[in-house]
Design goal:
Strand content: over 45%
Number of domains: 2
Largest sheet: 20 strands, mixed
Distance between the termini: 57 Å
Structural class: mainly beta
Helix content: under 10%
Radius of gyration: 25 Å
Number of helices: 1
Shape: elongated
Length: about 475
């Protein structure tokens, strides 16, 4: 029986006052216009009223889906609420104008069985919205993918994970479910929620327009591969702000598979990862344009700001500003070699063309790192018009992992022996370095080669203004 609470509506009446204080040519008198906005009803359904137990043992899938499906048709907003408890579920599907509201003491638990997910592996999510408008998740609670139930062997370097490829549903060793997916949606809002322990990618935004992700956190086991934080794929007009991401694999990862990606802004966030904190690619069949990353702190990550352009798409007009970076070595089975900044384009294989990367601005960057900056274009995929302005970089080794390697993965040349340098450059047309200070920790300076390492015939049009390179003999903890 559905109680009064499940049918409860909130009524919001808005009053808009527009005061016209300057006389217009058409009306000599000042006027005041009062516009009464239409009344908005928010329908509220509690999953408890539809039979959910919330004990974390019995599956509540049917009850949750019934609460969603009971939301009225049309453009009427609806909240599906989860009171305190643990709700075990197979895939649940959102529809337009529905927001999941998970109480701060409630957890939505993803099922660990293959039968908990749809037949098509492309729809393996705990929470899935397809072709929906005005959808979201909030409430302060948790969505948990129970990643530890997918671990075959725990390993401090990298866990060995379950793969459901034996079923034929998908191939490779990344055959397990994602946590939350919005596919082909408009007006997506994810805020005030904790996404935890994904077995694979965590928050997946695919072919969406107008997405707002804010005031939320993502936690993935640090030793679990492929548990990306936020993957933005073929989507436009995306804003990410005030998020905290602590995970094993890439944290914020724009990709292009079937179309271009435009207008992505990420600000005021904190990241730690065993892979790249911010990475464009490696899926890059279409263009990336107009991306801004500002006021972001990156700590103890394997790579800071990364570009892996491998499939012929082009990148242009990207700004990184006010970024604080700390990068260190982890085991080389993870992509990355402690580069604070890594910009590369090369073909994934012999069948792939080369894309270009142009008009990049790095401004107000502070980095403490075990390795240098790596800027590598390719013969037919140049890096063009790169600017580094107001940048302070301190180089110091503090782990025992082997250095002296350049990482071109995936594809390209793989791992290549190369002495460490402040900035390694190849296949660049247009590079501005202005107000850049490079410091080398004195007791290990012999392990580094040159501040700037490049072959003149592959790098053209360089401008150096107020560039300094010196030893740092302080005893401070550079890794902090």
């Amino acid at each position: 029986m559905v109680t009064y609470l499940s049918r409860f509506t909130i009524t919001i009446i808005g009053l808009l006052v527009i005061i016209q204080s300057t006389p217009s040519t058409s009306s000599p008198n000042n006027s005041v216009q009062l516009l009464l906005l239409s009344t908005t009803h928010i329908h509220i359904h509690s999953v408890i009223d539809f039979g959910a137990k919330g004990d974390g043992i019995h599956y509540d899938t049917a009850a949750i889906q019934s609460a969603i499906d009971a939301c009225p048709p049309g453009n009427k907003p609806c909240e599906v609420r989860f009171p305190p408890g643990e709700y075990l579920t197979a895939t649940i599907r959102l529809k337009s104008h529905v927001t999941l509201n998970i109480h701060e003491d409630a957890t939505l638990l993803g099922g660990p069985r293959i039968e908990d997910y749809p037949e098509e592996s492309s729809r393996w999510y705990v929470v899935l919205a397809e072709n929906a408008t005005d959808v979201g998740i909030t409430g302060g609670g948790v969505v948990d993918g129970q990643a530890m139930k997918f671990v075959v062997t725990k390993n401090e370097i990298k866990n060995v994970m379950v793969s459901w490829n034996h079923t034929g549903a998908c191939s490779g060793d990344e055959c397990r479910p994602r946590l939350v997916g919005f596919l082909g949606c408009r007006n997506v809002n994810v805020w005030n929620v904790r996404l935890r322990e994904p077995a694979y990618w965590c928050l997946h935004i695919v072919r969406c327009d107008n997405t707002f992700i804010r005031d939320m956190s993502i936690y993935g086991d640090f030793n679990t591969p492929n548990n990306d934080g936020i993957d933005i794929e073929d989507s436009n007009n995306t804003v990410i702000t005030r998020v905290q991401i602590d995970t094993g694999d890439d944290a914020i990862c724009p990709k292009t598979y079937t179309g271009p990606l435009y207008n992505l802004t990420a600000t005021d966030s904190w990241i730690r990862t065993k892979s790249s904190a911010i990475k464009l690619g490696s899926a890059s069949w279409f263009d990336f344009k107009a991306l801004v990353f500002d006021n972001i702190t990156i700590v103890e990550s394997h790579r800071g700001l990364g570009f892996q352009i491998r499939d012929g798409g082009n990148v242009s007009d990207v700004t990184f500003s006010n970024i604080n970076i700390s990068t260190r070595y982890y085991d080389p089975s993870w992509w990355g070699r402690a580069e604070p900044i890594y910009v590369t384009t090369c073909p994934r294989d012999t069948k792939t063309k080369e894309g270009t990367i142009s008009n990049l601005l790095f401004v107000n960057i502070t980095a403490k790192s075990e390795n240098g900056v790596f800027l590598s274009g390719s013969k037919h995929g140049l890096l063009k018009n790169l600017s580094f302005i107001n940048m302070n970089v301190t180089y110091k080794r503090w782990t025992n992992y082997m250095g002296g390697l350049v990482d071109y993965r995936p594809g390209c040349q793989g791992l290549v022996n190369h002495s460490s340098a402040g900035i390694i450059m190849e296949h660049i047309e247009g590079l501005e370095v202005k107000n850049v200070n490079m410091k080398w920790h004195g007791d290990q300076s012999s392990s580094w080669s040159n501040p700037l390492d490049f072959r003149p015939w592959t790098v053209n049009d360089i401008s150096l203004l107020n560039f300094h390179s010196d030893f740092d003999n302080s005893d401070g903890n550079v890794a902090s």
